[in-house]
Amino acid sequence: MTDQLAQWRHETDAAITATLEAVSSSVAQAVPDAHEVLAPAMRYAAGGKRLRALLLLASHAAHEGTATQAAVSLAAALELFQTAALLHDDVLDGSDTRRGGPAAHREIETLHRAMGWQGDAESFGAAGAILAGDLTLMACQRAVSRAVAAAPERTVLLGTMFSEMADLVTAGQYADMRAAAQPLAALGEQEVQIRAVMRAKTASYSAEFPLAMGAAVAGASDDAISAMRTIGRDLGIAFQLRDDVLGLVGRPEVTGKPAGDDVREGKRTLLAWYAWSHGDTTARESIALAFGNRDASDTTVAAAVDAVVRSGAVAHVEQEIARLTQAARTRLHALGLGDAGADMLDALITQVVDRQH
Question: Measured between alpha carbons, how far is residue 80 from residues 12, 45, 137, 248, 322 in Å?
Fold first, then answer.
């Protein structure tokens, strides 16, 4: 099983590299300076655990698929879509770091300053990172085109599914921004919105559509595809909840992001909602001092994190992760997939929810 996962990672990495190199080659002669925005995109794309790709490829195998070339191309497209989302998200969130290095917009901003160019360096960096994300989305479309060319009998279905996924993620991103723009006092009433964001912005492309497209490219029935979507929604929300826990109490040397970064960003999470709704007055005061405050000191942020933990929020979310994970596993085992495929998917579920970064 480990060898198979390693092989899938290798194949996905190769497909991602080839796709980005094709984009680079297509613009290199006409716009040689485009490497300044492609370089951070390639750095982002080179990182990550490839969980989305592995879920797709494991689902394809579990449904006895033989369209390997199409599946690998789709897996690469998913990872490129994730890369584009990260590039754009870092601009929207004003993040300073990514994967242990500077966020793309900070990297391009630094280039602007170093070269002594005219205009505002920060705005230039943000614009450059957005364009880096756009170029990565074009790379994603290249990979999708290769996938549907290799599985022509599923062209319409796969194209429709990928488009629906992209629509959900984009709308979910807006919903996330909208929730964060509300006054902090509204946080206690935002559980429904927070759950909607997790389902649309994260669950859709982290697990729901990877599992469903893996089944679809394998030629699975509509019922089987629908079942994988349901499993993926539960798993994808558990994925986001784990990400939120790590964003609150994860170790920076492991996660690659400062501890409590989500607090400074004012990110609306189930953790924040629970702490605000169930914490006492002192807890809310500590949270209010740091939440959404980019200039909050490390001590202030640490006090807010401690308040969230003491409220029981982390324990509550851990219970939610366990519930969703068990639901996903129960539905998966009820499908009667081949032992090898089901075991591989079960192992990946563990990786998704038990990861440390």
Answer: 10, 7, 7, 26, 29
The Cα 254–Cα 252 span in angstroms is: 5
258-278 pLDDT tens trace:
678 889 889 999 999 999 999
- Nearest alpha-carbon partner for 131 in 71, 88, 184: 88
At 256, the pLDDT band (50, 70, 90 cuts) reads low
Residues sharing a CB contact under 8 Å with residue 174, sequence separation 6 or more, in sequence order? none
Say how far apart CA 71 and CA 146 lie, in whole Å. 10
Rounded distance, CA 268 to CA 197, Å? 9
**Rounded Cα–Cα distance for residues 323 and 223 (Å):** 24
**Residue extents of the structural domains in the chain:** 2-354
For the domain 2-354, what is the CATH superfamily, name and number? Answer: Farnesyl Diphosphate Synthase (1.10.600.10)
CA distance 345 to 334: 13
**Distance between CA atoms of residues 110 and 107, nearest Å:** 5
DSSP H stretches of helix in the chain: 2-28, 35-45, 51-62, 68-93, 104-115, 121-150, 155-180, 191-197, 209-217, 222-249, 252-255, 261-265, 270-278, 281-290, 298-310, 313-334, 339-354
DSSP 281-317: HHHHHHHHHHTT-TT--HHHHHHHHHHHHHTTHHHHH
Q: Which of 313, 177, 183 is nearest to 248 (CA)?
A: 313
Whole-angstrom distance, CA of residue 230 vs CA of residue 221:
14
In whole angstroms, give the CA distance from residue 348 to residue 56. Answer: 11
- Structure confidence by residue, pLDDT tens digits, 230-240: 999 999 999 99
What pLDDT does 322 receive? 96
Residue 281 has pLDDT above 70, yes or no: yes
CA dihedral 251, 254, 258, 262 (to 10 degrees): -80
- Tokens of residue 109, six digits: 């901003």
